[in-house]
Amino acid sequence: MSAKVVDAADVAAPFVAELKQKIAALKGPVPVLVGFLANDDKAARKYAEWTAKTCAATGVRFELRECQRTELEDKIIEANEDDNVHGIMVYYPVFNGSQDQYIQNTVSYKKDVEGLCHKYVYNMYHNIRFLDEAQTQKCIIPCTPLAILKILEYVGVYNPILPYGRRLHGRVITVINRSEHVGRPLAALLANDGAKVYSVDENGTMEFHRGEGLKFEKHVEVESATTLTEALPQSDVVITGVPARSYRVPTSQLKEGVIAINFSGSKNFEEEELKQKASIFVPSVGKVTVAMLERNLMRLHEYLEKDKEARSSNSGKETSA
Amino acid sequence: MSAKVVDAADVAAPFVAELKQKIAALKGPVPVLVGFLANDDKAARKYAEWTAKTCAATGVRFELRECQRTELEDKIIEANEDDNVHGIMVYYPVFNGSQDQYIQNTVSYKKDVEGLCHKYVYNMYHNIRFLDEAQTQKCIIPCTPLAILKILEYVGVYNPILPYGRRLHGRVITVINRSEHVGRPLAALLANDGAKVYSVDENGTMEFHRGEGLKFEKHVEVESATTLTEALPQSDVVITGVPARSYRVPTSQLKEGVIAINFSGSKNFEEEELKQKASIFVPSVGKVTVAMLERNLMRLHEYLEKDKEARSSNSGKETSA
User: Fold this and answer.
1) Is B97 on the interface with A (CB under 8 A)?
2) Which one of 2.40.50.180, 3.40.600.10, 3.40.50.720, 3.30.300.30 gives the CATH number of domain B144-286?
3) Which of A45, A84, A95, B246 has the most CB atoms less than 10 A away?
4) So which residues are the signal peptide here (chains A, B) (predicted)?
5) Does position A316 have pLDDT exceeding 70, yes or no?
């Protein structure tokens, strides 16, 4: 018995089809996504090419703007202020960790298709789902964590017989990577849906589980003495994103029939070995990530176009007054 | 001839005296500063002790709240919402880089005495000096960079004969450290005041100089091929903050009569050698940093108390209506 290998393109297909239909049906301007490439990173360029391809397929107008990293901040601010741009994304890494996090926060939340600015990250960690009290504008969820949730739905880890928000109840999931960008938000989202999550990185393990609070029912994050070696055999799902060519998850420690997902640019699993042990293997997630990016874009496009309409009808009133 | 060694306490003294006087003269509530200690870091505890000591000397009510790092975010939010707290600071490091940067942004800008939240950092980089259009509320500048500017004023690097905002014109300054926390903001602030700055870290050199823009006249940051070895002999001032015990600035490469400032917790200079070459040496800046912290606190205290008054007079109106 060999694992079922799931192609991210198959998971993305219905989302891509839906996007295509929605965009074709639009009466107003087509969504415009601007991507900034300010590095020489090969993986970043590949991701940009993917974005362009998926956008072309769905009808989004994608514009890749290449610039020097020292020009990036000004170019982002220009795009923030441009009414014709609906979404902005940046192909990281650009500078170092902390300066890149600064850059993430210079993207206006109104155009942040990646969901990486503090407002969205904060709301996600606090399980705040809407931007406004009237609950008309949903928050943006970071693309890669969101893509992984969609993959978990596709491969049947979410149990639809359970009530919404509890559908991972009973699942143990290990996430190897605790970046603010993917691993930690992913752990929080999984915990918010009921899973017990071991979040592991080189600094140790944190455990995430569902909170009991009445207000937000947000996840709880606690220190854990559980090592990766102890976490792996307990885990129904192992999701890994270690950005190191040499890193491999030890197959022998995995549970028989595990569901294995790799979101790193490198191969984090011994793939041939893994296929003999896992039930399902998803070697990459990028195509779903791009679909989620476009899904986020559609949302921001809707809000921005409504906003523009409201502004132009207001200014119309002033003129006629 | 041996360098004049400047004690940070002497630089801080007039600020501390001014704070004392201002606080004694207050009619309303005394400023309350809450410090969060959520690690076992010795340097962090020492810094907390210093804060307590300076606060006791000036009349600020300082409250050290120790907690688990997993509790920190909730405790910060509690303090954000507490009308009796005027300032919040966190003794870093708590988690890793990116999660700490997330934590920095959970502190409300209304209470961010350290000036580390995105709003202040963004405004600082863009040379935006006020929070409001009416220019009644000044922005908060991060404490350590601000402390270093005050030290540079004290030791005569700022030339008061030049117009305000140009007083570092002609100075070449090397800053070894380009963290978002100290080194990069410091480089930008120095450039905004007219200096030519080499900002050096393990990833290379960036050059900062004054911008020519009409709107904000903000600094310009460009890539530089200048190595540290080339930058040091040109530099009138060398400011270093390398957090590594083994790191030493090579004395032989320094300009005769250099002004040397160390803001690292470790000794970054060969001190005995340096004293034979430098004109002025400032071995540490911490005491000025704490004074600046309290100065920022006084500002936030003023805004918050005005805000409270406005709210209470408004609610009074509603009652009498």
Assistant:
1) yes
2) 3.40.50.720
3) A95
4) none
5) no
Q: Is B102 on the interface with A (CB under 8 A)?
A: yes
Own/partner contacts of B40-46, CB < 8 Å, gap of 24 or more, are B41/B91, B41/B93, B43/B265, B44/B91, B44/B92, B44/B93, B45/B91
Q: Which residues of B touch A73 (CB under 8 A)?
A: 125
Residue-wise pLDDT for B127-170, tens only, equals 889 999 999 999 999 999 999 999 999 999 999 998 888 899 99
Mean pLDDT estimate for chain B: 93
Name the percent of chain B lying above pLDDT 90. 83
| Least confident stretch, A124-128, A206-210, A316-320 | A316-320
Instruction: Please state which CATH number belongs to domain A19-111.
Output: 3.40.50.10860
Tally C-beta pairs within 8 A across A and B. Answer: 57
Segment (H or E) for B148: helix B143-154
Give the pLDDT of residue B215. 46
Query: To the nearest whole angstrom, how far is the Cα of A133 from the nearest Cα of chain B?
Result: 19
pLDDT attached to residue A314: 77
Count Cβ atoms below 10 Å from residue A96 Cβ, excluding itself. Answer: 16
The pLDDT > 70 percentage for chain A reads 96
Tens of pLDDT, residues A53-111? 999 999 999 999 999 999 999 999 999 999 999 999 999 999 977 899 999 999 999 99
Residue B200 makes CB contacts below 8 A (sequence gap 6+) with B174, B175, B176, B178, B228, B231
CB-based burial label for B43 (10 Å; 0-12, 13-18, 19+): middle
Q: What is the DSSP annotation of B52-117? A: HHHHHHHT-EEEEEE--HHHHHHHHHHHHT-TT--EEEEES-SS-HHHHHHHHHHS-TTTBTT--S
Structural domain spans, chain B: 144-286
Which tokens is A25 given?
């049906």
Q: What is the pLDDT of residues B86-103, one digit of tens each?
A: 999 999 999 977 899 999
Of the candidates A95, A101, A221, the beta carbon closest to that of B101 is on: A101
Nearest to A222 among B70, B96, B105 (CB): B70
As a whole number of angstroms, the longest Cα–Cα distance in chain B is: 76
Residue B178 has pLDDT above 90, yes or no: yes
Q: Which residue's entry shows tokens 């950092």?
A: B121
Q: Omega of the bond prior to B243 within 30 degrees of 0, cis? A: no
> Going along B225-269, which residue ranges are E strands?
237-240, 259-262
- The two tokens of residue A242 are 């270690």
Q: What is the DSSP string of A181-199?
A: TTHHHHHHHHHHTT-EEEE
Report the pLDDT value the prediction gives residue B98, as an integer from 0 to 100: 87
**Domain A144-286 in the same topology as domain A19-111:** yes
B321 has pLDDT over 60: no
B143 has catalytic annotation: yes
